[in-house]
Specification:
Blueprint (H helix, E strand, L loop, with lengths): L10 H6 L11 H4 L3 E7 L9 E5 L2 E9 L2 E4 L2 H7 L3 H14 L5 E3 L9 E5 L13 H4 L8 E7 L2 E6 L6 H18 L8 E5 L2 E12 L3 E7 L2 H7 L19
Antiparallel strand pairs: 1-3, 2-3, 3-4, 5-6, 6-8, 7-8, 7-9, 9-10, 10-11
Amino acid sequence: MTARHAKRPTLGRRLRNTQAASAMPKRLEGAMPLLKARLWLSEVVSEEWVLRDIGAGLRAILVADETDMARSIVRADLERWAISEEEVWELVRQNLRAEGLTPSKRQPSADDGVRLSSFDCPTWHFASSHLLLMDELVPAGLPYGVLVAVPRRSSLLYHVIEGEAALGRACLALALIAGGLFAEGPGSISDRLFWWHDGLLSPIWMAPVVDPVRGLYIAVELPDELRARLGMSEGEAVHPNACGGSLPQ
């Protein structure tokens, strides 16, 4: 995976410099190139910040990508710059496009039919924020949407759902990779899977199950709307997958 900026400071250094940061530019023109977004779980953010709820317990936080830190933008900054939230989030999308990141392709197993795409750049703090550009990363009008994981700030993984046949295997592959990246960090966000569809995000729940006949497998609970799109009847389960390892918690 490539990025225009090869090196970024560590999270620890960025946090240490937060208290000593200079004031934000007084004019919008000075702040425009700095505006980015960081993804966080909803329960660990402050309502004083400029936020966008993207669903499934995730929020995007407006930040300024300064030299040695990412500073949260507050509403007073927007008032001083005389810009609306809608306008500032469009600037964020423009700046994310300008980063020049290119998704890579991976196939965890040659025979499982699962194809994953990813932004995975350990030195770049805003790779996961390209979730805000998902409508530009995948073809328009996808009938079944996209499986998504944002395990850490430097990683975004996704799989375009083509039907029910490989969905269980895709969930398992994505969950295992995402769980490893979440544990590895830094900047861990979530080890969960999500369903992206029509600009919305919904959770997908997975849990290990021990069955006396099948043994250990992964149970996948899909959102009702996805089940309906796939033509799955009520109560019908995604085909279980044998699990030789453990599902990240």
